[in-house]
Amino acid sequence: MEAEGLDWLLVPLHQLVSWGAAGAMVFGGVVPYIPQYRDIRRTQNAEGFSTYVCLVLLVANILRILFWFGRHFESPLLWQSIVMILTMLLMLKLCTEVRVTNELNVKRRFFAAADTQDEAIKPPPRRSYLVTLESEMATTVSLAELVLLPS
Protein backbone atom coordinates (compact mmCIF):
# COMPACT_ATOMS: atom_id res chain seq x y z
CA MET A 1 0.00 0.00 0.00
CA GLU A 2 2.87 2.36 0.75
CA ALA A 3 4.44 1.72 -2.70
CA GLU A 4 1.23 2.86 -4.35
CA GLY A 5 1.21 5.92 -2.11
CA LEU A 6 4.75 6.88 -3.29
CA ASP A 7 3.96 6.28 -6.96
CA TRP A 8 2.79 9.86 -7.36
CA LEU A 9 6.30 10.96 -6.30
CA LEU A 10 8.47 8.25 -7.89
CA VAL A 11 7.07 8.38 -11.43
CA PRO A 12 7.70 12.13 -11.95
CA LEU A 13 11.05 11.80 -10.17
CA HIS A 14 12.03 8.95 -12.50
CA GLN A 15 11.01 11.01 -15.54
CA LEU A 16 12.95 14.01 -14.24
CA VAL A 17 16.11 11.94 -13.72
CA SER A 18 15.64 10.35 -17.17
CA TRP A 19 15.32 13.78 -18.84
CA GLY A 20 18.31 15.07 -16.87
CA ALA A 21 20.47 12.10 -17.91
CA ALA A 22 19.40 12.51 -21.56
CA GLY A 23 20.23 16.22 -21.43
CA ALA A 24 23.62 15.45 -19.88
CA MET A 25 24.32 12.95 -22.65
CA VAL A 26 23.31 15.38 -25.38
CA PHE A 27 25.17 18.45 -24.10
CA GLY A 28 27.92 16.80 -22.04
CA GLY A 29 30.27 16.46 -25.00
CA VAL A 30 29.90 20.12 -25.89
CA VAL A 31 30.63 21.59 -22.47
CA PRO A 32 34.48 21.34 -22.69
CA TYR A 33 34.46 23.36 -25.90
CA ILE A 34 32.67 26.37 -24.39
CA PRO A 35 35.75 27.69 -22.50
CA GLN A 36 37.96 26.99 -25.53
CA TYR A 37 35.60 28.90 -27.80
CA ARG A 38 35.49 31.84 -25.42
CA ASP A 39 39.29 31.83 -24.96
CA ILE A 40 39.99 31.70 -28.70
CA ARG A 41 37.49 34.48 -29.32
CA ARG A 42 38.90 36.64 -26.50
CA THR A 43 42.60 36.21 -27.37
CA GLN A 44 42.14 35.92 -31.15
CA ASN A 45 44.71 33.11 -31.06
CA ALA A 46 43.88 29.56 -32.18
CA GLU A 47 47.37 28.09 -32.08
CA GLY A 48 46.68 25.60 -29.28
CA PHE A 49 43.55 24.18 -30.86
CA SER A 50 43.90 21.21 -33.21
CA THR A 51 41.59 21.16 -36.18
CA TYR A 52 42.41 17.46 -36.60
CA VAL A 53 40.40 16.76 -33.45
CA CYS A 54 37.44 18.51 -35.08
CA LEU A 55 37.93 16.40 -38.19
CA VAL A 56 37.95 13.14 -36.22
CA LEU A 57 34.88 14.11 -34.21
CA LEU A 58 33.00 15.23 -37.32
CA VAL A 59 33.72 11.93 -39.08
CA ALA A 60 32.79 9.88 -36.00
CA ASN A 61 29.50 11.69 -35.46
CA ILE A 62 28.57 11.59 -39.14
CA LEU A 63 29.21 7.84 -39.13
CA ARG A 64 27.06 7.48 -36.02
CA ILE A 65 24.20 9.30 -37.73
CA LEU A 66 24.57 7.11 -40.82
CA PHE A 67 24.54 4.02 -38.57
CA TRP A 68 21.29 5.27 -37.02
CA PHE A 69 19.54 4.96 -40.39
CA GLY A 70 20.42 1.26 -40.51
CA ARG A 71 19.70 0.41 -36.88
CA HIS A 72 17.96 2.86 -34.61
CA PHE A 73 19.46 3.51 -31.20
CA GLU A 74 18.48 5.88 -28.40
CA SER A 75 17.48 9.30 -29.60
CA PRO A 76 19.68 11.20 -27.06
CA LEU A 77 22.73 9.67 -28.76
CA LEU A 78 21.45 10.84 -32.14
CA TRP A 79 20.87 14.34 -30.77
CA GLN A 80 24.34 14.25 -29.19
CA SER A 81 25.84 13.63 -32.62
CA ILE A 82 23.86 16.47 -34.18
CA VAL A 83 24.83 18.90 -31.42
CA MET A 84 28.50 17.81 -31.60
CA ILE A 85 28.59 18.31 -35.38
CA LEU A 86 27.19 21.83 -34.99
CA THR A 87 29.72 22.55 -32.24
CA MET A 88 32.65 21.32 -34.33
CA LEU A 89 31.50 23.41 -37.29
CA LEU A 90 31.34 26.49 -35.04
CA MET A 91 34.81 25.77 -33.68
CA LEU A 92 36.24 25.32 -37.18
CA LYS A 93 34.57 28.53 -38.34
CA LEU A 94 36.05 30.47 -35.42
CA CYS A 95 39.52 28.96 -35.87
CA THR A 96 39.65 29.71 -39.58
CA GLU A 97 38.44 33.28 -39.03
CA VAL A 98 41.06 33.86 -36.34
CA ARG A 99 43.87 32.31 -38.39
CA VAL A 100 42.96 34.28 -41.51
CA THR A 101 42.77 37.49 -39.50
CA ASN A 102 46.16 36.81 -37.90
CA GLU A 103 47.74 36.07 -41.29
CA LEU A 104 46.32 39.28 -42.73
CA ASN A 105 47.65 41.26 -39.77
CA VAL A 106 51.13 39.82 -40.30
CA LYS A 107 51.00 40.75 -43.98
CA ARG A 108 49.81 44.25 -43.12
CA ARG A 109 52.71 44.67 -40.71
CA PHE A 110 55.08 43.53 -43.43
CA PHE A 111 53.78 46.11 -45.91
CA ALA A 112 53.75 48.82 -43.26
CA ALA A 113 57.38 48.06 -42.39
CA ALA A 114 58.38 48.33 -46.05
CA ASP A 115 57.01 51.87 -46.15
CA THR A 116 59.32 53.00 -43.34
CA GLN A 117 62.57 52.39 -45.25
CA ASP A 118 63.24 49.10 -43.45
CA GLU A 119 63.80 47.49 -46.81
CA ALA A 120 67.19 49.25 -46.97
CA ILE A 121 68.50 46.73 -44.45
CA LYS A 122 68.36 43.50 -46.36
CA PRO A 123 69.92 40.18 -45.44
CA PRO A 124 72.44 38.80 -47.90
CA PRO A 125 70.85 36.73 -50.65
CA ARG A 126 70.77 33.00 -50.07
CA ARG A 127 72.89 31.01 -52.46
CA SER A 128 71.28 28.17 -54.25
CA TYR A 129 72.64 24.69 -53.64
CA LEU A 130 72.86 24.10 -57.38
CA VAL A 131 74.93 27.24 -57.93
CA THR A 132 77.30 26.16 -55.15
CA LEU A 133 77.52 22.65 -56.59
CA GLU A 134 78.20 23.96 -60.10
CA SER A 135 80.95 26.28 -58.89
CA GLU A 136 82.59 23.44 -56.94
CA MET A 137 82.43 21.19 -59.98
CA ALA A 138 83.96 23.92 -62.15
CA THR A 139 86.78 24.35 -59.65
CA THR A 140 87.37 20.59 -59.58
CA VAL A 141 87.40 20.40 -63.37
CA SER A 142 89.84 23.30 -63.68
CA LEU A 143 92.15 21.71 -61.08
CA ALA A 144 91.99 18.40 -62.97
CA GLU A 145 92.89 20.19 -66.23
CA LEU A 146 95.91 21.79 -64.56
CA VAL A 147 97.17 18.45 -63.31
CA LEU A 148 96.56 16.54 -66.54
CA LEU A 149 97.82 19.17 -69.02
CA PRO A 150 101.56 19.03 -69.65
CA SER A 151 103.39 22.32 -69.35
TrEMBL record:
<keyword id="KW-0472">Membrane</keyword>
<feature type="transmembrane region" description="Helical">
    <location>
        <begin position="16"/>
        <end position="37"/>
    </location>
</feature>
<dbReference type="InterPro" id="IPR052241">
    <property type="entry name" value="SLC66/Scramblase_ANY1"/>
</dbReference>
<dbReference type="Pfam" id="PF04193">
    <property type="entry name" value="PQ-loop"/>
</dbReference>
<keyword id="KW-0812">Transmembrane</keyword>
<feature type="transmembrane region" description="Helical">
    <location>
        <begin position="49"/>
        <end position="71"/>
    </location>
</feature>
<protein>
    <recommendedName>
        <fullName>Solute carrier family 66 member 2</fullName>
    </recommendedName>
</protein>
<keyword id="KW-0677">Repeat</keyword>
<dbReference type="InterPro" id="IPR006603">
    <property type="entry name" value="PQ-loop_rpt"/>
</dbReference>
<feature type="transmembrane region" description="Helical">
    <location>
        <begin position="77"/>
        <end position="95"/>
    </location>
</feature>
<keyword id="KW-1133">Transmembrane helix</keyword>
